[in-house]
Amino acid sequence: MELLRFATAGSVDDGKSTLIGRLLYDSKAIFEDQLEAVERVSLQRGDEYTDLALLTDGLRAEREQGITIDVAYRYFATPERKFIIADTPGHVQYTRNMVTGNSTADLTMVLVDARKGIVEQTRRHAFLASLLRVPHLLVCINKMDLVDYDREVFEAIRDEFTAFASRLDVTDMTFIPISALKGDNVVQRSGNMPWYEGASLLHHLEQVYIASDRNLIDSRFPVQWVVRPQATEFHDYRGYAGRVDGGVFRVGDEVMVLPSGLTTTVAAIETFDGPVDEAFSPMSVTMRLTDDIDVSRGDMICRPHNKPTVGQDLDAMVCWMHERPLKQGDFLALKHTTRWVRAVVRDVQYRLDVNTLHRDEASTQLGLNDVGRVSLRVTQPLFYDSYRRNRQTGSFILAAEDTNVTVGAGMLLRS
Amino acid sequence: MDSSERAGTTGQYQLSQLRNIEAQSIHIIREVAAEFERPVLLFSGGKDSVVMLHLARKAFWPGRIPFPVMHIDTGHNFPEVLNFRDRIVAEIEATLKVASVQESIDTGRVAEETGADPSRNRLQTRTLLDAITEFKFDAVFGGARRDEEKARAKERVYSFRDEFGQWDPKNQRPELWSLYNGRHGAGEHIRVFPLSDWTELDIWQYVGEEGLELPSIYYAHRRNVFRRDGMLLSEGPHVNVRDHEEIMEMTVRYRTVGDMTCTGAVESPASTVDDIILEVAASRLTERGATRADDRVSEAAMEDRKREGYF
Q: ipTM of the predicted structure?
């Protein structure tokens, strides 16, 4: 069984909670005691109907105020796949949460109210999904029951969205007309829209092809931990533990270790369950090398003829997540793969309006929930790829040096 | 079995979902070992901590687990579980620390609850935080899963705790990709949940695939139980059975393992992992809803305890 991670976002009234509730209920991932608890709370609050949003709004403040504060993770499975939903709120901290939820998603699900068509939030959502390079975009045009299942309404929204998305970097886009409330095209194809010939929502989630989304070309292995057992039976053992962040490594492959630039070959790829012939993303393995060379945490094992960029001057799209703005000259802690370095902000090149995609080049800082292009200089060289090419070796986080909190996320551009 | 089967691949360089979350958990455990000075792994002998300990072994093999294992012993544990704990820890040559709630009571750090059914559930938090302070632990692995409970569904993999051990759910650090931020000041620590993305069914499937041993009480057995608040509680040394409560011998098993005083059994004939997988897949109740009195105090019982520093 495969795993599909998908992110969803939306405002209170676009039917997102109803849709998630239905997916979970129909796949039997909602349990009776959870449903009873939700019914009890709805009744206490005097709601007219059972508010399925309460299933995902787990915190006391959320239930009291009827808002969603934070990304909630929900799990369900069908015989085909296991699904992890990153459900992000529509209002508070929208950009921060959307970026977080989309950072690990294979697919992002955008909900559009058929009566209202494309609104600002739809555009912002689609832009953030493309910025985070989510491989698949699924646009659900919801509440079709309220527009008499009208094909023309669906097609007009689809065409408008397609025109807008041509300005974005979206590779795979699918449109499905649904009614979350009535269940049309959610699990089963609906008889109310015979003109729609595509798959139901759940069928699409089960079938969308994700095997080719990972980078299987550029071999990247950031070293996490050096295994040196203090036991006589493994006296000379030296293994490099880590996760394959791109490409495929095979026993016998010629490899290069950065930053030293020394080359050797892969002697063995080992796991607790025994040796394997090859390892690919996202396997966690331990690699042994033929030659005894100095390798430590933060180093990168790659192929000699396919190296990542090595550099201290970085250009990145940064999403800022803190009240204290990002400004030229700021010092920050930066984590990239398995290394922490110090970074100084050289320049805020522009701030991007996430609604209009307008570049504000006069802007000299990024405020909370802003996205912009930033130049950074770091204390030690990083071994990186563009985020476009590799989401693992192309991403970093920024933390404040004084408070230690995470204040930003960056996607590296080709230098 | 060839190497691709052993690695759990499904062909075309694709990992099965179970091997995918396994790899993710191992990645998390290694990050913690590399970036913190004094990690510790909380081990109760329950199924989740058994899986977590197994993943830690895998992460550092053929080396040993480079941090100790700690059990918060309430004094109300099932004896079968304590025996199991000692045996497993000895088998893998890990270092076991036991922090005792009884000792916290004896030294006056906490007072036993009063009332008809005093529980030590909430007292554990003090014992846990005292042990973290005493041993200067800066990272504490817990086996909590996001599918267990709605407050946990919102918690980060790396969850920051201030100097009072408190969780602030409204002010959590954003967590992106698999770039975890474990930076903290003196006296603060990070709770780490490597099983965040595992479901109860995943745990059982993994127990089956890996052939992991669990305490016997997870499997169907005959036991003297009585009904209270819709749960089946076990007769035992720390449980006060009231006059109107009728002891019955039934075939039961436990879905979760906590204190004898607050963990309910479920009637079940499931005596093997395969039986349990079928039972879990068909169950219409969550494991905590079915079996835990500690979560029934209020709608936000778990969140409130977590804010104070609970697991």
A: 0.93
